[in-house]
Amino acid sequence: MIITSHSSNPFPDNVDQMFTHCRMATMAKGNYGIMKNAALAVSGKKISWIGPMDALPETLGTIKVTDCRNQWILPGFVDCHTHLIWAGSRADEFEMRLAGASYADIARAGGGIFSTVTATRAADEDMLFDLASRRMARFLRQGITTVEIKSGYGLDLDTELKMLAVAGRLQKACPQDVSTTFLGAHALPPKFAGRSDDYIKEVVRIMLPEVKDQGIATAVDVFCENIAFSRDQTRQVFEKALALGFAIKLHAEQLSDSNGTALAAQMGALSCDHLEYLSLDGARKMADHGTVAVLLPGAFYYLRETRIPPVEYFRNLRIPMAVATDLNPGSSPVFGMMPVLNMACLLFGLTCEEALAGATINGARALNLADCKGSLEPGKDADFVIWDVDTPADLCYLTGITPLQNVVIGGKTAYVMA
Amino acid sequence: MIITSHSSNPFPDNVDQMFTHCRMATMAKGNYGIMKNAALAVSGKKISWIGPMDALPETLGTIKVTDCRNQWILPGFVDCHTHLIWAGSRADEFEMRLAGASYADIARAGGGIFSTVTATRAADEDMLFDLASRRMARFLRQGITTVEIKSGYGLDLDTELKMLAVAGRLQKACPQDVSTTFLGAHALPPKFAGRSDDYIKEVVRIMLPEVKDQGIATAVDVFCENIAFSRDQTRQVFEKALALGFAIKLHAEQLSDSNGTALAAQMGALSCDHLEYLSLDGARKMADHGTVAVLLPGAFYYLRETRIPPVEYFRNLRIPMAVATDLNPGSSPVFGMMPVLNMACLLFGLTCEEALAGATINGARALNLADCKGSLEPGKDADFVIWDVDTPADLCYLTGITPLQNVVIGGKTAYVMA
To answer: Are residues A179 and A284 in the same domain?
Structure first.
């Protein structure tokens, strides 16, 4: 039996759960999409209906009802750029840098990305899984319901595969959805010093096919930068990745303008990430090809950078802006999305609505998941968070508070605030 | 019976509790003062002994023992500058500003400090107490064990007294110690537009004596700035405050150099706070008179300021630097000390050790409480926090995590992480 209501939006007959008396920012189409005195229905793992309270059927029968007491429901955060799996700590390096140590001093003391590579290579899979699953639990308590995870602290076949295997285990063990990216071309391993083309050959000829065979990543990422890999090397990795059927993404124009963005956009990249030094030409290529701009204010902040990404280009060219934690131990030990929203607003000048769209629907776009994640719309996954706030802007405005009540993922309550 | 150990530091005979197998940053004298494989004894409300594990008596008898499993103990945070009592929200104003609204637009929409004044005047004492006690509970979960609270959102006698009465109730109801400051001269109330001298007269002749009579504040603060009160007006308030026996403090040189600092230092102020525009002359006066520099990076960050306080002056002149949340709804909705430590390091360039000294022993100095708060030393109050971190620098380095295990205040466990 189909229960119809006096809304034009028919109430489905297979509803399992209702969330009633809520305010909602649906974030559909990248806008707040605010609804007040509203309700949301879940059928199985999906949102099946959204509408005003007065459009509900008169009786809800056996449907489980959660009264939201006028609290806000927003889509779960989609964190589209993390390096969540690592071993070791870089707090000492942070402290040394503040005390005046140079990069050379830090390198001599065993710091920098290679300290993370060394610790990650040394850690066994269970230890990495244990460390990473605790980070996933923290993310859950911060309302992050979808997490992209990159490899890239192995820089050798075995460790890259180990990291991706850990990501696969997280997908099974944690309530969140995990999207896995192979980032073998993250940095040049010391063993290949002066032979970066040889390392790229290893990535292309050995690592990529093996990752494909094991089916443990959906996207391939490269760090295109003067301290990492060139445009030409990036192209080689992307050509092979595309031939194998991977989606592609790029760390681009973080510290200088290599114009990797134009290359990646023209090759169909889902996203280009960082983008502080992006040129207008690069931005136009992104617009032409529908590439998402992923902004990472945590890294900008921790590295004490001064040049912000060209937000006006993104606005004028209607390039979707995502925001993400970039969680990593070196440049962004940021364990939640609210600090990122706050920094996106205060450091990069995004509006609250832009920042929230960046952490939801545009984060989903950057992972090619916008058909099922990132907004509250019938047919999408029932991934959402109930917030005890006065206005969605509170999620950008407040520091040191996560005023979250419930996290629902795939229709299941995954976390309830104690 | 006095139990002696083979340490030169005699073990007292009246120990109630021991915290064993810990690492410690005592923060005594403003340094880390790190001890490893150590223990701390509590007698009543006080720390009575600190020493190495191998200096403990062979048997501890009936003493209650907490094994810290090598976790770190640091002094509880002393937050020496907050405006913790208010009603209303300014998230909308934050959002409007990011969306391009001018200060005039915001004022027309009823925003700015006077929106907080209006809401605080309208709220009854119980409502203010309820709002503020929730903030105190958040502070407790962040390891803040001593809290300074200012009035200043009343700007009329009744509301200023109401705020200070709420602070008094918080002192009784919350586990933290509260230090209360009268800040009647925070802003010019609209009723006195164009007549700031008249308002200062009201502060001096009516409010200060009444606050003194009621015994509900220990210090008096003024906002000396071109948008607030002049040096001469500040002097009038301070002269009366000193005559009545209050300690004095100053909001100084935040947005411009009024040289209020020199005045306050010469009059014996405990601290001058903000100080972005402090001159070398002002700094020298602080050094001459032992005034503490209270740095408030939250307000700097939220107001998107660019000029940082002259940290080199403080270092060179050996002026103690405190750091504080400046918790307030307009310019620093920062509900914890870790974000402040992080900003003090990354925005102001403090070392981790300086930032941690700022949030402990130097915060205590800014409240004239250094004889009993702010460091782990025998004879001081047993106010401390057990942290699940690798190094104290983690407290400055991490964003979005509060890796706290236990908070002890006056020898009592006030909070245990769930």
So the answer is: yes
Residue B11 lies in a domain: no
- Structure confidence by residue, pLDDT tens digits, B36-45: 999 999 999 9
The reply to whether residue A91 touches residue B390, judged by beta carbons under 8 angstroms, is yes
Q: What is the pLDDT of residues B79-101, one digit of tens each?
A: 999 999 999 999 999 999 999 98
**B23 and B82 fall within a common domain:** no
Residue B8 has a pLDDT of 54
What is the reported pLDDT for B316? 98
Amino acid identity, residue A20? Answer: T
- Mark whether A149 and A23 lie in a shared domain: no
- Chain A hits for B302, CB-CB cut-off 8 Å, are 346
Query: Is residue A3 in some structural domain?
Result: no
Please, which pLDDT band fits residue A5 given cuts at 50, 70 and 90?
very low
DSSP characters for A69-115?
TT-EEEEPEEE--------S--HHHHHHHHTT--HHHHHHTT-SHHH
Q: Would you call B390 and A336 a contact, using CB atoms and an 8 Å cutoff?
A: no
Pairwise CA distance, residues A114 & A33, whole Å:
45
The average pLDDT across B133-159 equals: 98
pLDDT at A8: 54
Chains A & B: contacts with CB separation below 8 Å: 110
Q: Which domain holds residue A22?
A: 17-75+376-416
- Based on the fold, state whether residues B56 and B156 are members of the same structural domain: no
Note whether residue B6 is domain-resident.
no
CB contact (8 A) between residue B391 and residue A89: yes
B140 and B47 housed in the same domain? no
The answer to whether residue A7 sits within a structural domain is: no
Does position A70 have pLDDT exceeding 90, yes or no?
yes
Domain count, chain A: 2
- Residues of A in Cβ contact (< 8 Å) with B334: 399-400
Question: Cβ B394–A142 below 8 Å, yes or no?
Answer: no
DSSP letters, A1-19, are -PPP-SSSSPPPS---EEE
Question: 3-class DSSP state for residue B144?
Answer: strand
Given B89, B334, B351, which is nearest A400 (Cβ)? Answer: B334
A342 contact B CB<8A: no
The answer to whether the Cβ–Cβ distance between A302 and B352 falls below 8 Å is: no
User: In CATH, what number is assigned to the domain containing residue B98?
Assistant: 3.20.20.140
B256 and B183 housed in the same domain: yes
Beta strands A64-67 and B77-79 are unpaired
| ipTM at complex level | 0.95
Lowest mean pLDDT among A58-62, A332-336, B323-327, B342-346: A58-62
Confidence of residue B188 (pLDDT cuts 50, 70, 90): very high
In this predicted structure, the answer to whether residue B356 has a pLDDT above a threshold of 70 is yes
With residues binned 3-state (H G I as helix, E B as strand, rest as coil), the percentages for chain B, rounded to 5, are 35, 25, 40
Q: Are residues B285 and B332 in the same domain?
A: yes
With CA atoms as reference, report the closest residue to B375 among B82, B147, B73: B73
CATH code, domain with B62: 2.30.40.10
Give the separation between CA A111 and CA A97, rounded to whole angstroms: 10
Residue A334: closest C-alpha in chain B = B399
Residues B27 and B137 in one domain: no
Stretch A96-101: mean pLDDT: 91
